[in-house]
Amino acid sequence: MPNPAATNTRPLWQRLLLRRLKFLAFVVVLLGVVLGGSYLFAPQWLLRAEIARKAMTAHVEEHSVQVGDTKWVYYEGGEGPTLLLLHGFAADRNVWLEQAKLLTPHFHVIAPDLPGWGDSSRVEGASYNIDAQAARLQGFVAALRLQRFMLVGHSMGGAIAGVYAADHPEHVASLVLIDSFGLKANENDFARNALAGKNPFLFDDRESFARATALAFQQVPAIPGRFIDVLVKQNQKDHPFIERTFNELRDPSQYLALQSRLDRLGMPVMGLWCHDDKITDISSLDSLRNGLTHASAISSTILNGCNHMPILEKADETSRILTAFALSH
């Protein structure tokens, strides 16, 4: 048993230090209990907190704007020339946070949730194919009073960006297509399965989530199991929308939506691809270069060591390429 008399004879600074250490120990234990309980029973809170932390690190803030029947939720931050970033199928604006962290020191970055995805609104029964999304994008651009900007699209977002650029060249100073959908390509396993109606973007458990992730990444990122459970639950909730939109994009008018408009693109265009992309085959890049008959400048870059997600797997290289292209045009 501690001797109270001995304790009282300690110098004041020691007693104050002991009290602080005890308080800090209590706080650490309390945080451990709270975080551990949240991870087990409310992992969605921790996931949101982690996303908020990344957004803060990227120096972007969340905003929203109502355009007709659609509420657009988007990130915005940084100063300089404007870069408008469009995400791909079954993704959302958060996929751009790593790029935003690297780009906001030099650019004004805007990354929206495309209508129907993420926190942006979804109108029951409406079409969310490439053409419909490109038309909606003009309303968003008008609402934010954007003049001219570099438009960057990844995967499905690339097809939307290309169609928009063909229809509204007055706004698009330059166009970047990253592993873009919408171009003629050699048929790979993904294309064969998609045309057969097999949708790899639907998952119901951790195993099917892992298969979907492996389709897009060469090195699958480490995600805590309970965070995966949150993503699975959200995907299950969105199954009807994902399936309906996936089927819309299987129509030739959609999976060749960009190919049929390449000759209308007069601005500088860059194609950025991962060599080993399992979703949009690298042969798409040849179709892009050969179809750009009126572009004022054509650039292309192929990255190794990544699959369909260079914006995450090769974040530093991708941001350097985007920065160089933006500053040169």
* CATH topology descriptor of the largest domain: Rossmann fold
CATH superfamily of the largest domain: Alpha/Beta hydrolase fold, catalytic domain
CATH architecture of the largest domain: 3-Layer(aba) Sandwich
Determine the oligomeric state from the structure: single chain
Tally of discrete structural domains: 2
The total strand number stands at: 8
Mean pLDDT: 92
Largest sheet: 8 strands, mixed
What low-confidence regions span 5 or more consecutive residues with pLDDT below 50? 29-35
Please tell me how large the radius of gyration is.
24 Å
Strand sequence of the main sheet, in spatial order? Answer: 1-2-4-3-5-6-7-8
| Helix-and-strand structural type | alpha/beta
Percentage of residues assigned to helices:
40-55%
CA-CA gap between termini: 76 Å
The number of distinct helices, counting runs of at least 4 residues, comes to: 14
CATH class of the largest domain: Alpha Beta
Topology as H/E string? HHHEEEHEHEHEHHHHHEHEHH
| Outline | globular
**How much strand?**
15-25%
Q: Please, could you describe this protein's structure?
A:
The chain folds into two domains: about 40 residues; about 280 residues, Rossmann fold (3-Layer(aba) Sandwich). It is about 45% helix and about 15% strand. About 0% of the residues have low confidence. It has about 325 residues and is an alpha/beta fold. α2 packs across α3 and α3 packs across α9. β5, α6 and β6 form a beta-alpha-beta unit. It has an eight-stranded mixed sheet with strand order 1-2-4-3-5-6-7-8, with helices on both faces. The chain has 14 helices and eight strands. The longest helix is centred in the first third of the chain and has 30 residues.
